[in-house]
Amino acid sequence: MTFPRPHRHDAVLAVGALLGGVLLWSLGLHTQGERSELPDWAALVPLTVICFAELFRRTRPVTVLLVGTVALIADQFTVGSLITVMVYTDVVYAAVVYGSDRVARRVPVFSGLFTVACTIILLTVFQDPFGLLIGVLIGAITLAPATTGAVIRNHRDAADAARLRAEQTALLAEMDRVQAVTAERGRMARELHDVVANHLSAIAIHSTAALSLDDPATTRQALGVIRENSVDGLAEMRRLIGLLRDQGGDRAPAAAPTLAGLDALIEQARTNGAGSGLTFTLDDRREDGIVLPAPVELAAYRIVQESLTNALKHAAPGPAHIMLTHHTGQDLTVTVTSSLGGRRGPRAPGSGAGLVGMRERVALLDGEIDAGPVPAPAADGGGGGPATIWRVRAVLPVRDDKEPAT
């Protein structure tokens, strides 16, 4: 059997015990006087054995307990050494503290039973209170260190459990913080994209038109649209930056866009899409007097805004139609359609982030969304119209319908 390197404190304890035992032996201080038939030096043998075993009290506690028990029994046949007995008490203590859970449970029980059994036997044999005194000494050598070790081990296990709970709590808190930061960053990214992309797309389209067309009137009109979108975009950016800097402050948060602002949004789209051949119409089929939850209105507004931005960037000349449908107890349905096909003239590049943002908004509300080409209705597809259109359709659950406004 290979033994690992002893702990530094165990080595100091073993060497100190051995030197102390040799000192007491040299002074003639023994525990059993001259009753032993063996020479006095024989007491140094169990002393040396148990001190050597003490080196491995942490790493091999059960083996050390067995060796120490044998050494203690052998010491009883010599003149005896007090240090051997003292080291044995530490061996019992170490077996409980550093041993396995099973050993830690059984050693105190066996020590207690052994102490009681020895006391009863000694009282029966000697028929004298002296037997009780010896039983107390046996308990001090075996039961007392075993009980102390059990108490220390319980405190240590409780401290380890508390530390583990604290680490788990800290880990869960860090996970919650990371998730909160990630969610907030996602929300900020969606807001920035939805607010800025519409203005920048119009600026890109009209600046390209101004550069490619040698028409002073067209250039002047394009520059007017560019300026308007630049000012509006800058105002929106300042609003968002102000919200980010004033988190937790006393200033009231700016009102989130609602569906009541769709008319202004569509009018802006008409201005930005002037000359592109796009027409914008709104068909609001919502029941009158119903106030929708703010998150639903914000998501619907942003979906329409992003769909109009995509239409300005990619749609072919033709109608862009927005339809809202909602009745009490039902979901809000937002449908935006636009012509699909080749587009002439300046176009703004797309990154696909808009569709991702729309899907994220709908997912947060546990809704459904689909975006892609679909066959055009018969009324639109006939008479030379497009056979395929681009449609964005979002279904937003409304769980908190309020009473009709009076």
Report what the structure shows:
The protein has helices at 8-26, 44-54, 61-75, 82-98, 101-126, 129-141, 143-212, 216-245, 262-272, 294-314, 353-364, 378-381; strands at residues 278-286, 318-326, 332-339, 368-375, 388-396. The protein is α+β, with helices and mostly antiparallel strands. The protein has 2 domains: 8-164, no CATH class; 180-396, Heat Shock Protein 90 (2-Layer Sandwich), CATH 3.30.565. It has a 5-stranded mixed sheet with strand order 1-2-3-5-4, with helices on one face. Strand 2 and strand 3 form a beta hairpin. The radius of gyration is 44 Å and the shape is rod-shaped. Residues 401-406 have low confidence and may be disordered.
Based on the model shown, name its key terms:
406 residues, alpha+beta, Heat Shock Protein 90, 2 domains, 12 helices, 61% helix, disordered C terminus
How would you spell out the order of helices and strands? HHHHHHHHHEHEEHEHE
Name the CATH homologous superfamily of the largest domain: Histidine kinase-like ATPase, C-terminal domain
Task: Quote the distance from N terminus to C terminus.
Answer: 90 Å
Helix content: 55-70%
**Beta-strand content bin:** 5-15%
Query: Domains counted in the coordinates: how many?
Result: 2
* Apparent shape: rod-shaped
Q: What is the multimeric organization of the chains shown?
A: single chain
CATH names the topology of the largest domain as: Heat Shock Protein 90
Radius of gyration: 44 Å
What's the helix count?
Answer: 12
What order do the strands of the largest sheet run in, or round the barrel if closed?
1-2-3-5-4
